[in-house]
Design goal:
This protein is of the alpha+beta class. It is 39% helix and 30% strand. Strands 1, 2, 3, 4, 5, 6 and 7 form a seven-stranded antiparallel beta sheet that branches. Strand 5 (100-101) and strand 6 (104-105) form a beta hairpin. Helix 1 (4-38) crosses helix 2 (118-143). The protein is elongated and about 70 Å long.
């Protein structure tokens, strides 16, 4: 029968693991801001809000909300938003499902090994979302259809 000390030890290990994973998400936030700046977005304001994990394999969950400005003075609305529901598994795999970019919800799931490459994850995520959103805008412009073509979704989106 486990005693209170054993339970406390296990909980301590789990809390340390959660702190490490939250630091990984904080690093992703910083790298995402850098990647967005490299893509030309301006006045980037990003906030990370932790959420309770939805299942045992989830190490941590959070939402990364970003407000930024698009370049160009001829735009009526230059504010642009990005909301990323982030899940980081205990094994270090980042999953983003239900991302919202400029009011468009992305149905595909982004999967990337965050613990090994936070900068690469941020670049892949921001570049992929930018491509998807542009494809969405072009499709609306050309055909009036509001759904992006799944062929336009870049890997590592599934």
């Amino acid at each position: 029968m486990p005693d209170a000390l054993e339970i406390a030890r296990v909980l301590t290990v789990l809390e340390r693991e959660e702190e490490t994973l939250l630091r990984c998400l904080a690093e992703l936030q910083c790298r995402t801001v850098e990647a967005l700046a490299q893509l030309g977005y301006q006045e980037i304001d990003a906030h990370l809000a932790a959420q309770p994990p939805a299942s045992p394999e989830v190490g941590v969950a959070a939402t990364l909300s970003v407000i930024m400005k698009l370049p160009g003075s001829d735009l009526r609305r230059s504010d642009f938003s990005l909301n990323l529901p982030l899940v980081l598994t205990r094994s270090g795999e980042l999953r983003v499902s239900g991302a919202e970019i400029g009011g468009v919800v992305v149905r595909e799931t982004f999967v990337y090994p965050l613990k090994t490459d936070p900068a690469g994850a941020a670049r892949a995520l921001t570049h992929g979302l930018s491509r998807l959103y542009l494809a969405h805008l072009l499709k609306i412009r050309l055909s009036g259809d509001t759904m992006p073509d799944p062929e336009a979704w870049a890997s590592p989106f599934r």
